[in-house]
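Notebook entry, structure prediction.
Reason for the run: the old model in the group folder had no record of what sequence produced it. Starting over properly, with the input documented here first.
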Amino acid sequence: MLCINFLLSKKKKLEKEILNDAIVLKREGFKSIDSSIMLNTQGMYTQNNISDLSVSMLEHEKNIYFFMQTQSGAILIKDEDLKPYSDWSVLYTYTTVIAIIAISYFLILQKLRPLIRLRRKIASFGNGNMKISFKTKSCDEIGLVSNELESARRKINTILESRTLFLRNLMHELKTPIAKGTIATQMLDSKKQKDRFVSIFGRLEALVTEFAMIEEVTSLDTQNGFKEYRLVDIIDGAIDMAMVEREHVTIEVNADVKIMANYRLYTTAIKNMIDNGIKYSPDGHVKILMINNELCFESKGKCIAHPLQYYIEPFTKENPSKNSFGLGLYLVDSILKAHSQVLAHEYHAGINRFIFA
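New structure, fully documented this time:
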């Protein structure tokens, strides 16, 4: 039950002072209907008298008054319960609200802190830190997710270690019979059979070497082991690795150009591009140059018959009769991805241009 205390002001002097000095907070005007029952010769009827009524809400000396005016007079009423807001009450209210918001914000941050740490750990794991631990003693939902991620991390590491061990052991075991077969081939009397077996075992050894290189690229987690090298030094190493005559390769690269790279892998990528250009160009020549800060390999010949994506798949090649396994461009693409680069191709005026972009 709502109870409001009003006090009717009867002191004319005080009433006049209030009306003169008070601050008008609000003023409203509306119609007042006064109904009365009348009697005439025709019987009883209801007569409605409509008059204008004005009500003002006033503040005077920290008290609230209501001043009502009608056509017949005026009345001033003091509200005993309603008090105007003071500066201290407003300040207290705002301080309380701000304190509640600040405490709530602090508590929310405390609850979100484990989630922020978990996000950073996941980002680190995605960047190749396979030894980071997600384990936590917390039993809330974030803790349960962290422990599940830790379990998944251990399983992934176990699978990767098993894969690496299997591939390395497999390649080691394959090299032994290949070496024995190569030695046994030298004991054959027939030169034709000897050359055939030497070619077979040589191709097998080259295939195992390429598999070893692919395993090294795919197991490369980060670029922490990369160092800065002059690009011309890497190109010279690639030419030596390809065992081709210097007149088959033209180099137009500034000696001051340097890159961050794994020397062995990047040299292999350039060596494969040199081999590819010499093998498929009619003049057996490759030109290496820089265009727009990108390393390019140009060679004459017909445009490749398929999109580049076809050739960077393993065991695909343009001419099956060529002495290759179709792993050259696949290996190049894998090495470039490890160096945050991509392999691109352009063809113009009889020139194939492969680009390290």
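Summary: The two ends are 81 Å apart (CA to CA).
The old model has been moved to the deprecated folder.
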